[in-house]
């Protein structure tokens, strides 16, 4: 630790704006970013808070992995502005855009009010970022929550017979729900699997009837059509 402190004493702040905050320190700069709602500066501060002293090492690793020809690269790291007009098979969106916490209905109403205060250029940047993907978009958790607020829950209606073929669990996939699926239903609602940009995964699965009613409301009966049985009739 002593050696590291010796190295830090030789560091020089070249940025004229950051030099003004040398006396007040990092937390003074963070308070300023929050006070003036500087989202770009806040994003850089969050990177420093997350990676801390690893930043120089990570920058060096990126520089060592650099190749001169794009065709030889496994990954392309860049900003949204650099990606304008380009498309890629797979896009991983960093979690440094608009953030929307997930919670109760009351917190969702507060979130809706907060979203209304977000500048339009932030939404434009997010739109450009997510539309660069041709085949696969790796979502951040914040982006998933934003889509949920817009009504996208990644739910699809499928045949119960297809669920049985896939060998899926007969237990509802929703968090803290232990209900079993109704085998008499012809249709079942499936939550699609998701992979987030931080590497976490949501395997998805199938929803029980109570969880389906909670999300579809009066339309829920359409997603749980009972299996038809042949009835004898007299002509």
From TrEMBL:
| Keywords annotated in UniProt | ATP-binding, Helicase, Hydrolase, Nucleotide-binding
Q: What is this protein called?
A: F-box DNA helicase 1-like
Gene giving rise to this polypeptide: LOC108509927
Output the InterPro entries linked to this UniProt entry.
Answer: DNA_helicase_UvrD-like_C, DNA_helicase_UvrD/REP, P-loop_NTPase
CC annotations in GO? nucleus
Residue ranges constituting the UvrD-like helicase C-terminal domain according to the UniProt record: 57-142
Q: Name one GO molecular function term.
A: hydrolase activity
Q: Which organism is it from?
A: Lepidothrix coronata (blue-crowned manakin)
Instruction: Name the GO terms of the biological process aspect.
Output: double-strand break repair via homologous recombination; replication fork processing
């Amino acid at each position: 630790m002593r050696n590291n402190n010796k190295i830090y004493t030789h560091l020089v702040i070249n940025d004229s704006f950051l030099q003004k905050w040398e006396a007040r320190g990092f937390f003074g700069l963070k308070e300023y970013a929050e006070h003036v709602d500087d989202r770009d500066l806040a994003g850089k501060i969050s990177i420093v808070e997350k990676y801390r002293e690893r930043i120089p090492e990570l920058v060096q690793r990126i520089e060592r992995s650099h190749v001169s020809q794009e065709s030889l690269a496994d990954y392309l790291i860049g900003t949204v502005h650099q990606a304008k007009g380009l498309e890629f098979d797979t896009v991983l969106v960093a979690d440094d855009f608009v953030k929307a916490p997930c919670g109760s209905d009351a917190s969702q109403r507060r979130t809706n009010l907060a979203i209304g205060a977000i500048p339009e250029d932030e939404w434009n940047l997010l739109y450009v970022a997510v539309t660069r993907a041709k085949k696969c978009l790796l979502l951040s958790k914040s982006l998933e929550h934003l889509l949920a607020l817009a009504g996208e829950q990644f739910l699809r209606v499928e045949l119960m017979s297809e669920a049985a073929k896939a060998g899926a669990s007969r237990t509802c996939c929703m968090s803290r729900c232990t209900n079993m699926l109704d085998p008499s239903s012809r249709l079942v609602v499936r939550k699609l699997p998701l992979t987030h940009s931080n590497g976490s995964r949501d395997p998805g699965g199938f929803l029980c009837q109570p969880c389906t009613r909670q999300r579809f409301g009066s339309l829920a009966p359409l997603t749980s059509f009972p299996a038809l049985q042949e009835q004898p009739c007299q002509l």
